[in-house]
Amino acid sequence: VHQSKMDFFCKLGYGKQDICKVLENLGQEALEDDVLKELIRMGSKPQALENQAQPSQLKLVARGSCSSTQGLKRLGEDESDSSDSLRPIVIDGSNVAMSHGNKEVFSCWGIQLAVDWFRERGHTYIKVFVPLWRKEPPRQDSPIADQHILEELEKQSILVYTPSRKVKGKRVVCYDDRYIVKVAYEKDGVIVSNDHYRDLQNENPEWKWFIEQRLLMYSFVSNRFMPPDDPLGRHGPTLSNFLSKKPVLPERKWQPCPYGKKCTYGNKCKFYHPERQHQAQLSVADELRAKTKVPIALGKEEERRQCSP
User: Fold this and answer.
1) Band of the pLDDT at 29, cuts 50, 70, 90?
2) Which cofactors are required for activity (predicted)?
3) How large a percentage of the chain has pLDDT more than 70?
4) Alpha-carbon gap, residue 239 to 138, rounded angstroms
5) CA 137, 143, 149: angle at the middle one, nearest 5?
6) Cα 227 from Cα 117, distance rounded (Å)
7) Whether domain 82-243 has CATH 3.40.630.30
């Protein structure tokens, strides 16, 4: 059991020393979710994330070189989404955290699950918006779980705090939903939330259309982030097409006719007939009419030839 857990977390990219420390603290029979939470709490990162976190070294480029555009990208500018085939993702952090905590606890682990789900799909632009006062220590009326995850996401430039302050002992909070919709609208991305933003829909008609067409709802099933396969309904696009800038249209599949060669609908039949590929798809009545007209026409031609001198 110890070796299998070591192999599992080594494949995720964690170091063997960190894994051994956690297993010694929690015991060999600890669940994988508990071990993963403890690794994150200790600040351990997979090797892939550590490589991403290391800033790339700037390289000098000669004047007139065609690689000058690559140098601009290395200067730390915002990643261009035009080359990426996937849409930018803007996550309503408060909505996701409260949904994962059953509307009782602000569970930061739910935000991490959502971010990991989109990372695995290959999305490069992911932003999470959370009010600034969530940095404060948890209280009885606003409990917070796994608060250290917010610090880790902020270091990775994924989490963004919306401003808030205190005036004469009262907290003044900016409306974070407006930040979420505005950024998603400007980036032409997708909003991840179970909120309908009805007040913002009434403010701006363009936002109304955008929220209706680009809102991705979700569910948590046993600590698993699960968006629907049909975000806009049964007759809408699939989830992969919904999240991509260039949707792929499925090939049209013709359903074969259940009557086969006995079908009497002819060209009016909506099903596929492999035997009629190179034939005129006429109904049985039209075929009979055509057959009766042919001998009549031939007889009239013979009479004309006999009467002609």
Assistant:
1) confident
2) Mg(2+)
3) 73
4) 36
5) 65
6) 10
7) no
